[in-house]
Amino acid sequence: ATAFFDAVVRAARLLPTKPDPETRRVIVVLSDGEDNFSTRSLKSALEEIQKADGLFYSINPGAAPDRLNRVSRRGQQWMETLAEQTGGMAFLAESYRDLAGIYGRLAKELQVQYLLSFYSPAPASQSGFRAISVTLPERPELKVRARKGYYAGNRTFR
Question: Which residues contact 57 (CB under 8 A, 6 or more apart)?
Fold first, then answer.
């Protein structure tokens, strides 16, 4: 039995609530993403990561994308959703030899991120999820990967 979503929720709740201003909150999982035992859902796992202002990264040591079965593809899709919505990334390793390179890419990525700040036009007292979009209209050839929103009212968004 695998309770993947329950584990992600628990990890998100362990992220520091008051980290140093320059600290990022990151969850990195080595998993196939399959879940058959959780009491929590994909939606609740995503919400907990977003409330913690966390980034989600996954490394699936399963197999090449064309060799994943239906259940494994669903697990990979769940991890891709968590990564995409939080500004992270989902990696797929074809063999254990790929892991060193993937961890290197992940470390490099965490070193070259930008911090953007803004003031929301919504009143500070209005809590709940706020969707955001980051684009570079003058550089359409570049791809921006950023969280899709944040929860207002929990803590200062960074």
Answer: 26, 27, 28, 29, 83, 88, 89, 90, 91, 106
Helix (H, G, I), strand (E, B) or coil at 158: coil
Residue length, the chain? 158
CA distance 157 to 52: 10
- Nearest Cα to Cα of residue 34 among 79, 66, 65: 79
Tokens at 77, concatenated: 């899709």
Q: How many CB atoms lie within 10 A of CB 90?
A: 20
CA atoms within 13 A on the CB side of 27: 29
pLDDT band at 18 (very low <50, low <70, confident <90, very high): confident
Q: What is the pLDDT of residues 55-79, one digit of tens each?
A: 999 999 977 777 788 888 999 999 9
**DSSP string across 102-120:** HHHHHHHHHHS--------
CA–CA distance, 149 with 157 (Å, rounded to integer): 10
| Residue that is written with structure tokens 């803590």 in the block | 155
Tokens of 67: 């060799």
Question: What pTM was computed for the model?
Answer: 0.89
Which residues are within 8 A (CB) of 81 and not within 5 positions of it... i.e. 6 or more apart?
Answer: 42, 46
